[in-house]
Amino acid sequence: MLRANDHGSVTHPRRRDATRKLPYDFPEMFRRLRRATKSYTPAAMFQLKEEGYDSLFEILVACIISIRTFEEVTLPVSRNLFAHARKPSEMAKLSAHEIDELIHKCTFHGPKSRTIHSIAQRVANEFGDALPCDFDLLKSFPGVGPKCANLALGVTCDEPHGVAVDIHVHRVTNRWGLVKANDPEKARVQLEEELPKRYWIEINKLLVPFGKFICTARKPKCSTCPLLPYCRQVGVKDPE
Ligand code: SF4
After folding, report:
1. Which residue, 113, 133, 157, sits at the end of a domain?
2. Domain-embedded: residue 175
3. Which of 26, 75, 102, 107 stands the most exposed, by the fewest C-beta atoms within 10 Å?
4. Which residues lie closer than 8 Å to 135 by C-beta, 6 or more apart?
5. Pocket of ligand 1, candidates 224, 236, 238, 240: which has the most ligand atoms within 8 Å of its Cβ, to mutate?
């Protein structure tokens, strides 16, 4: 049922007037996000790290596997590949075709297998298996964009070089009204201006499960959402 607010305009009962929203309070918002997501599986790269796949090389490879691939596929495919090779020198001994067979359940497995193989060869040859925590180096690898470079550095090097913006971070922060960006790269730039650096890694960790289970693409669960007092609900048309 729709009802009139104090100004006489009509609002949806699950949608608060944007003018009455609280100012962004990041410590409190992140406290609420941590509580809201603690029972869900963490974002894939953080989950792999918890399982012991905690080298920069492994997380970079898993991030390449994850591109345009569901998390439910990324996790088993990454584990399957790492069961055969974890270090760059081990991965480089596999052929691109063998890597392709191991990761064939992810999207674009052919090009990804060639990318992973060439990165493994270069790291093994140039760095003796120890991939340095260097954003420019990671970005110099073919097939590695700012999202994977930032995410891999953030997860394994504790280095908040930049915010890793995936579809969930992009959608949720636009709905909050914190950014106004029609593509992830613009969202990354705006987030890095708005968000204190200490949240640059954690925002990806929290907003992936938050976006999958609470602030969902269709019918976000606004009526029970702990972020509702801060969220401007930009573009939200069908909240639950
Ligand atoms: S679920 Fe609704 S209130 Fe919560 S963050 Fe998403 S759009 Fe905002």
Report:
1. 157
2. yes
3. 107
4. 149, 150, 153, 161, 162
5. 236
Report pTM.
Answer: 0.83
CATH number at residue 26: 1.10.1670.10
**Residues 71 and 13 both lie in one domain:** no
Residue 35 lies in a domain: yes
Q: Is residue 233 assigned to a domain?
A: no
Q: Residue 227: CB within 6 Å of ligand 1?
A: yes
Instruction: For the beta carbon of residue 71, count every other beta carbon within 10 angstroms.
Output: 18
Ligand 1 contacts CB of residue 169 (under 6 A) = no
Residue 89 CB partners (closer than 8 Å, separation 6+): 120, 124, 129
pLDDT in tens, the chain (240 residues): 333 333 333 344 445 555 689 999 999 999 999 999 999 988 999 999 999 999 999 999 999 999 999 989 999 999 999 999 999 999 999 999 999 999 999 999 999 999 999 999 999 999 989 999 999 999 999 999 988 999 999 999 987 888 989 999 999 999 999 999 999 999 999 999 999 999 999 999 999 999 999 999 999 999 999 999 999 999 999 898
Residues 113 and 201 in one domain: no
Amino acid sitting at position 222: C
The CA 161 to ligand 1 mean position distance, Å, reads 27
53 and 74 fall within a common domain: yes
Residue whose CA lies nearest to ligand 1 atom number 6: 215
- Per the CB < 8 A criterion, the answer to whether 26 and 196 are in contact is yes
